[in-house]
């Protein structure tokens, strides 16, 4: 059985999120998804629009997801020590970054493959949130 793992904030859930989860599930037998807790979202100097409890319930309800768990740390290797997944799925915006090249080397020593998925063009929670803010300003 191939166990896959991915993480995300999954705020303002959109088709890009769904594409990632669908594609990830196609490459593993069991997909575990870490949903970033509200306190950890702040590392990006942001605040989630949707509270954690609702975001994890949304992710948990998606048919491609076998288990949704809180992501309370950015340390992916720490999660591997707990879950022993075989493949880690991540967005291609991290591809060839210094941090992820180091992580790939570390994961290779324990037989974990890192798969990078392309972002869905034109769709992101940041863009959706900016659009909503602009629309609200126009309506007031």
Question: Any overview of this molecule?
Answer:
- Helix content is 41%, strand content 20%.
- The protein contains six helices and five strands; from the N terminus they run βαβααβαβαβα.
- Strands 3-2-1-4-5 form a five-stranded parallel β-sheet, sandwiched between helices.
Q: Span between N and C termini?
A: 54 Å
List how many beta strands DSSP finds: 5
Radius of gyration: 16 Å
Biggest sheet, spatial arrangement of strands: 3-2-1-4-5
The 3D shape can be described as: globular
Topology:
Elements: E1 3-8, H1 15-25, E2 30-36, H2 38-41, H3 52-60, E3 67-71, H4 76-83, E4 87-91, H5 98-108, E5 113-117, H6 125-139
Parallel strand pairs: 1-2, 1-4, 2-3, 4-5
Keywords:
140 residues
In summary, what is this structure?
The protein has 140 residues and is an alpha/beta fold. 41% of the residues lie in helices and 20% in strands.
């Amino acid at each position: 059985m191939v166990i896959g793992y991915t993480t995300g904030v999954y705020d303002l859930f959109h088709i890009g999120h769904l594409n990632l989860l669908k594609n990830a599930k196609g490459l593993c037998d069991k997909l575990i998804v870490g949903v970033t807790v509200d306190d950890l979202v702040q590392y990006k100097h942001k605040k989630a629009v949707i509270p954690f409890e609702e975001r994890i319930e949304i992710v948990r309800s998606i048919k491609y997801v076998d288990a949704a768990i809180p992501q309370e740390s950015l340390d992916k290797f720490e999660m591997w020590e707990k879950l022993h997944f075989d493949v880690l799925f991540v967005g291609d915006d991290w591809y060839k970054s210094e941090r992820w090249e180091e992580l790939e080397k570390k994961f290779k020593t324990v037989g974990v493959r890192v798969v990078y998925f392309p972002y869905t063009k034109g769709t992101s929670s940041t863009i959706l949130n900016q659009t909503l803010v602009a629309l609200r300003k126009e309506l007031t």
